[in-house]
DNA sequence: CTCTGGATAATTTGATCATATTCTTGGGGC
DNA sequence: GCCCCAAGAATATGATCAAATTATCCAGAG
């Protein structure tokens, strides 16, 4: 999926044009998405101002946006932290993801070209390589990329934005999956999705996506129990 | 639907506890949702600081949050304005709403109590009264409330939040519907939804909700053509 | 004498504001 | 018609105020 709320940026990356708050937002977003932050970790404004070499205002705005995305939670008092998911949160996310991402997969099926499928295949291969080499960061990145690229072909920017928001919510909790990373090999749902895309079978794609989502959320759930 | 990203507030409303940026956000949110702003209207920070009697920082944060919600759009240069929906935007919103709100309606069906249905009935009656008296603000408020209350019974906070975000996107465009307000009376889909709820028929409820959403979006679309 | 409990002080952090800087834009001069 | 300059608005910083958590200290009980 594409970055949501993407501020218009210069087409082919001139360097210094992006405002500071946007840079901070993108940086934190990536860090949250790829498990650089631990669930429960406190996020302080002044801590970020130091490490990112910017003032408080851009940091405040970025944090506020991430709270709005559900990527961070406001702790009642004024503290902000990375969310710790409970079982019902995971159920809830699973349900929401299933509703949205199955539909996106269904819609994408009739719109992907054979070349698109090859690209997805290549990403999935890279994902397998990351798994076999124990490259956790690579695994998370390629997995995210697989969904991102697939959804980009659905021609449904609004729904895709919403799906993207949901990923931010469980990003930090994916890190704990890393513990038993090579030990157990689950059935690869991405292969099923690719198969459905090749057959141009929307319902099958939606079904496979639903299984992939459920499997991912189950991993998070297992990591949750492990943590306790 | 409930206000998304609702900051924890004091249980039974002590007045002065909410931070300024939260107050500003809620105020602007309501104004956008109920058509106080016109599509295309420019939103400036300094304009709001004056009218709301707060500094720039809270206003900045509120605006940033609303941009993240899709309620305002960042115009590439540093300008912010109320979104003008084009035909494809409306299609897109219709599709996203259909996906999400039908599912919420489906889920709510098995969870509403007879008392809840009576409450929804009362809201719909109030809505009819607002229509017959030409009370535009009341119509918008009751219509929003009908969906809010129904969705609150679905026990799906994440999806409900997402649905809530979508409403913000077409809120300003609803105002133009007011022009031909009493002239044409469309079939009341809320009645169909209530009927489905009474029968506890989830699929029927989802279907009726889909029709209600489509009808609403069609109204927005007609208003769009009118404006040109 | 030691340990626990509560209350207060100190530090840390968030919220707000006033100010400086940078960028966009619109108008006037060449 | 193009370019330069000025005005206005947004971005970003640092300072200041308020709130909350943490630390400390003293009193009383065991």
TrEMBL record, chains A, B:
Top-rank taxon:
Bacteria
Looking at the record, which segments are called Disordered?
1-20
- Descriptive protein name: FCD domain-containing protein
Q: Which SMART domains match?
A: FCD, HTH_GNTR
Q: What is the lineage of its organism?
A: Bacteria, Pseudomonadati, Pseudomonadota, Alphaproteobacteria, Rhodobacterales
Q: What are the HTH gntR-type domain coordinates in residue numbering?
A: 18-85
Keywords assigned: DNA-binding, Transcription, Transcription regulation
Cross-referenced PROSITE patterns: HTH_GNTR
Q: Which Pfam families does the UniProt record give?
A: FCD (PF07729), GntR (PF00392)
- PANTHER family for this protein: HTH-TYPE TRANSCRIPTIONAL REGULATOR MCBR (PTHR43537:SF39), TRANSCRIPTIONAL REGULATOR, GNTR FAMILY (PTHR43537)
Query: What GO molecular function annotation could you give as one example from this UniProt entry?
Result: DNA binding
